[in-house]
Specification:
about 20% helix, alpha+beta, two-stranded antiparallel ribbon
Length: about 140
């Protein structure tokens, strides 16, 4: 499946560049920091954007899981995301940096998920994020 099928973001808000892998419990994606991102300029990206990368990566496997369970016509967009915790290890991320993002469902019950995510540059973990996701019924 492609990004646009699984992730509701478009244009300047779609930060993920590539899906590396995914299954019903987690996903791995890659992104390259660019000046068109929110909170990003010539000095690089504010690390707060890493939280959004984890959320978009979580959308990959959770969107796929909903499609598998309820069919492709089911609207899987519109998750409300809460930040339970975030540890960000950098002040700024340089333009052109390749980021690898992993997310994993730690808990799932109906339309609620708790997600653990990491963002790495190479092997170095630069963010550890826990998100809580809720999707309203249509």
């Amino acid at each position: 499946m492609d990004l646009e099928t699984l992730v509701p973001h478009r244009d300047g808000m779609l930060l993920i560049g590539e899906i590396v892998s995914f299954d019903s419990q987690g996903a791995v994606t890659r992104a390259v920091v660019n000046a068109g991102w929110p909170l990003t300029g010539t000095a690089g990206a504010d690390p707060l954007v890493l939280i959004e990368l984890v959320a978009q990566t979580a959308a990959v496997n959770n969107g796929w899981e909903i499609i598998q369970r309820q069919g492709p016509e089911r609207d899987h967009r519109g998750w409300i995301v809460g930040i339970k915790s975030a540890r960000l290890a950098m002040d700024r991320i340089a333009l052109g940096t390749v980021l690898t993002v992993a997310s994993r469902n730690q808990f799932a019950y109906e339309n609620f998920r708790e997600i653990e995510g990491t963002v790495k540059i190479g092997k170095e973990v630069i963010a550890e994020v826990t998100l809580q996701l809720m999707q309203a019924e249509p």
